[in-house]
Amino acid sequence: MFLFLVVALVLVVGAVTLAVVSGGENGPLPEAAPEQLRDPLPPDRPVDRADVDGLRFPLAVRGYRMGDVDDALSRLGAELAERDSRIADLESALAGARAAATHGPVSPQHHASAENHVSMDKPGPRQEDRP
Which InterPro entries match (predicted)? Predict the structure, then answer.
């Protein structure tokens, strides 16, 4: 009885293997189209938090498609570097404006409006610098 079950199992496995390899009536199975990134990052505007939260990578045979992940990380890295550079430029300009505001004379009539406004203009020569 045991020998009969082993022979039947081998015949079933062989028949299924032959059907899959030869493809039966329709020929071999077609290659599956690879999944593409469904929610790409927007090319026409900066990336925001919602774009990153909604980003989903398609699965490949061994995990995620490395090209899609590398492209997304490169884009995010470039945008973060650009934002960091812009922040550094603005902080530098603000520090320069604050330094100019503390060293320059302020008239009493101008003092009230100067409290709420930081000028980005280049300061003129000071009184003690003039001949």
Answer: DivIVA_domain (IPR019933)
Work out the number of other CB atoms within 10 angstroms of the CB of residue 20: 11
- CA-based nearest residue to 114, from 101, 126, 103: 101
CA distance linking residue 54 with residue 48, whole number of Å: 10
Helix residue spans in the chain (DSSP H)? 2-22, 49-54, 66-103, 108-114
For residue 4, the SS3 value is: helix
How far apart, in whole angstroms, are the C-alpha atoms of residue 117 and residue 48? 30
Which DSSP symbol is given to 59? E
Q: What is the pLDDT of residues 45-70, one digit of tens each?
A: 888 888 887 777 777 777 777 888 88
Which H or E run contains 23?
A: none
Give yes or no for a contact between 29 and 9, defined as CB atoms under 8 angstroms apart: no
For the record, the structure tokens of 31 come out as 């290659």
Distance CA 121, CA 49 (A): 35
74 touches 62 (CB < 8 A)? no
